[in-house]
UniProtKB/TrEMBL annotation, chain A:
Involved in beta-(1-->2)glucan export. Transmembrane domains (TMD) form a pore in the inner membrane and the ATP-binding domain (NBD) is responsible for energy generation. CDD domains: ABC_HisP_GlnQ. GO terms for molecular function: ABC-type amino acid transporter activity; ATP binding; ATP hydrolysis activity. InterPro entries: AAA+_ATPase, ABC_ATPase_HisP-typ, ABC_transporter-like_ATP-bd, ABC_transporter-like_CS, MetN_ABC_transporter-like, P-loop_NTPase. Residues 6-250 form the ABC transporter domain. The keyword Nucleotide-binding applies. SUPFAM superfamilies: P-loop containing nucleoside triphosphate hydrolases. This is Amino acid ABC transporter ATP-binding protein, PAAT family. Belongs to the ABC transporter superfamily. It comes from Bradyrhizobium shewense. It holds the Pfam family ABC_tran. It comes from the Bacteria.
Automatic annotation (TrEMBL), chain B:
Residues 68-269 form the ABC transmembrane type-1 domain. Pfam families: BPD_transp_1 (PF00528). Its main location: membrane. This is Glutamate/aspartate import permease protein GltK. The chain crosses the membrane at residues 25-46, 67-92, 116-139, 250-272. Belongs to the binding-protein-dependent transport system permease family. HisMQ subfamily. PANTHER family: ABC TRANSPORTER PERMEASE, ABC TRANSPORTER PERMEASE PROTEIN. It comes from Bradyrhizobium shewense. One of its GO terms (molecular function) is transmembrane transporter activity.
Length: 254, 285
């Protein structure tokens, strides 16, 4: 029997008075492509950030590949892990940000090799070969020596995807990867993500691209006010939503 | 397709005409005035009681040259100490640890809050407080032997500079987008590695102009070490005029050397800025 790659149980997260997540539970299965949709402030981005520990959860637990994230259970209490352990756990996930966050002082190639060489301590020439292959995969072989400022938004985001893949993650997290792009550049990024989905990568994608969700997602999760309202196959949730709130959101977006 | 509508009459074609040069009367007038004032000042100095032959003779005197070398050695070493301290203190100040934060803030408060010349005198006279210094049972020495003018000047200038540099560095690190820390964390980097590999290189671009400022300030601040007998430029110039009473001539000698050094530093700073501007300029694609 297979186990979920990510198991989220009763996770809560507050920012001061604001409840960003209210007892969210969810499983993500190996090879699954999950799209998280919902209005801004619904908690979908916070959920991603909790999975790769850019945000710490206030209650509940998240297991990745069977390992409890961020804390260790000992003597009936939870102890926070040190920075080194958290860094090791983060290597299992790759994150793609809304605003790319490429390192501006490094070339496209150097952005990709930075993590494997500096953090994983792998051999520079071996990593370089892999990085060039990743650049080819995202269609940017010619841009290896370009700095981020010399690339379009779509090209930058494709380098960012290659950078995340270079760490050989088990799970890719996409936080609104096309929201900061000009409309004509969205397609090239989505094409790379579709190819990645076909290759069997487990993906969680926060997106407003319902067309992408309909085409690629195995499951669509609709969130509102820090809770999961409805989830299911893309055709069901997007085509025939059961919940009134889902219907209202979809009619507002389309 | 319809033809474009006819253009209205009364607006002639100006494309053949050139633009006449403006007379710029005020520029000529102000230039003439400035030249007059400068000429008056030059004449006053030429007729004043300055023996210019002393200036040219002492400009390359051995003692003066040794002085400028000592000045530069001290400025570079004290600035290096200041930058190292500044980076460490800035990182402490931005750390989540409240103890480190408080220590860093206290250091900045203490050394920015007292005059530099007072700090130099305190370091130099440390022997009055601690006649012997050392590590108990391992090593000890008389403070007067250890606290030479060189060491007192280095500690005084460097530690004071560290307090100012830490604020420059902190500003530089704060100028780097929070997304850069997050991207570094997302590829598994710890706080210190992210600072060293990702944040500091980007902060350098921002901090070099103010650091250049600070270094120029440091070159001149070394002259304060003359009060604790460190043989830098001003101290050596003073020693000469104590002997020959040519006060103004030797002050002019020292002034010319400070001006020369600072003039050389400015283009060096531009070279450094170019080095750290990697990726930020839209270079030819």
């Amino acid at each position: 029997m297979t186990k979920p790659l990510v198991a989220i149980r009763s996770v809560a997260k507050n920012f001061g008075e604001f409840q960003a997540l209210k007892s969210v539970s969810l499983d993500v299965w190996p090879g699954e492509v999950m799209c998280l949709i919902g209005a801004s402030g619904s908690g979908k981005t916070t959920l991603l950030r909790c999975i790769n520990q850019l945000a710490t959860i206030d209650a509940g637990g998240i297991w990745l590949d069977g390992e409890l994230l961020g804390v260790r259970e000992q003597g009936g209490r939870l102890h926070r892990l040190g920075e080194r352990e958290i860094g090791r756990q983060r290597l299992k996930t790759g994150m793609v940000f809304q605003r790319f966050n490429l390192f501006p002082h490094k070339t496209a190639l150097e952005n990709i090799t930075e993590g494997p060489v500096q953090v994983q301590g792998r051999k520079a020439d071996e990593v370089r070969t892999e990085a060039l292959e990743l650049l080819r995969r995202v269609g940017l072989s010619a841009k290896a020596d370009s700095y981020p400022a010399q690339l379009s938004g779509g090209q930058q985001q494709r380098v960012a995807i290659a950078r995340a893949l270079a760490m050989k993650p088990m799970l890719m997290l996409f936080d609104e990867p096309t929201s900061a792009l000009d409309p004509e550049l969205v397609g090239e990024v989505l094409a790379v993500m579709k190819e990645l989905a076909r290759s069997g990568m487990t993906m969680m994608v926060v997106t407003h691209e319902l067309g992408f969700a309909r085409e690629v997602a195995d499951r669509v999760v609709y969130m509102d006010q820090g809770a999961i309202v409805e989830q299911g196959r893309a055709s069901d949730v997007l085509g025939a939503p059961r919940e009134e709130r889902t219907r209202a959101f979809l009619s507002a977006v389309i | 397709m319809k033809p474009a509508p006819a253009l209205a009459e009364g607006f002639p074609d100006l494309s053949g005409m050139s633009i006449a040069r403006e007379p710029h009367w005020f520029r000529w007038l102000s230039a003439a005035l400035i030249i007059l004032v400068l000429a008056a000042i030059a004449r006053a100095f030429a007729n004043g009681q300055i023996e210019w032959s002393y200036v040219s003779r002492f400009l390359t005197a051995k003692v003066i040259l040794e002085g400028i070398v000592n000045t530069m050695v001290m400025a570079v070493l004290a600035m290096a100490l200041g930058i190292v301290l500044g980076i460490v203190v800035a990182i402490m100040r931005l750390s989540p640890n409240p103890v480190l934060k408080t220590v860093a803030a206290g250091y900045t408060w203490l050394f920015r809050g007292t005059p530099l010349i007072l700090q130099l005198l305190l370091w130099f006279n440390l022997a009055l407080v601690f006649p012997t210094i050392g590590i108990p049972g391992v090593w000890s020495a008389r403070a007067v032997d250890v606290m030479t003018p060189f060491l007192a000047a280095l500690l005084g200038l460097g530690i004071n500079q560290g307090a100012y540099t830490s604020e420059v560095m902190r500003a530089g690190m704060l100028s780097v987008d929070i997304g850069q820390y997050e991207a570094a964390q997302a590829i598994g980097m710890g706080r210190l590695r992210a600072l060293r590999r990702i944040v500091l290189p980007q902060a350098m671009r921002v901090v070099i102009p103010p650091l250049g400022n600070e270094f120029i300030g440091m070159v001149k601040a070394t002259s304060l070490a003359s009060v604790i007998q460190y043989p830098e430029l001003l101290h050596n110039a003073e020693n000469i005029y104590y002997a020959n009473s040519r006060v103004i001539e030797l002050l002019i000698v020292a002034g010319l050397w400070y001006l020369l050094v600072v003039s050389i530093l400015t283009p060096l700073q531009m070279l450094l800025e170019r080095r750290f501007a990697r990726g930020t300029l839209r270079l030819a694609q």
